[in-house]
Write the structure tokens for this entry.
Amino acid sequence: MKYKPLAIPDVVLMEPEVFGDNRGFFMETFREDGFAKNVVPARFVQDNHSKSIQGTLRGLHYQIKHPQGKLVRVISGTVFDVAVDLRKSSPYFGKWSSATLSAEDKTMLWIPPGFAHGFYVLSPEAEFIYKCTDYYAPAHERSLLWNDPSIAVDWPIIPGSTPLLSPKDENGLPFETAEVFA
């Protein structure tokens, strides 16, 4: 596994070694000792799987209590994945990092606790799976406004389209009024 810190160094792109032949392929998607050595020691307690159609934008989500670290990957299709640093103590507070993840390139992304996370589906559809370091806690879930100009995420919105959003994401809070981490 190769580990590549992004513009916000705590957000790490992971490139697995893929062993393939005419029958298919094999790869490790997680190895605790390598992850602890190259990223952080982490305990994962929940796995999630979502499927979305092209143009769907999910996010930017976080939990103000029970914050989740997420190890994300795409098993079908392609997404533009974003992490926004909401840790007031961080030199990257209010900044974002991104990566395009696809089933074809098999890359994964680590988003630490204290970040808002979201993704936009670029392919006709995409299946997205992720491991979480804490359980889903709906009472503490928050949504940061996906298109807040003070954050200015450069989403690669398909020309002539409008992102497909849930009501929760349409009503996300602007960065200036959102709850953040110490």
In short: The first strand starts at residue 2 and ends at 5. Residues 76 and 130 are 13 Å apart (CA to CA). The mean pLDDT is 97. DSSP finds two helices and 13 strands in the chain.
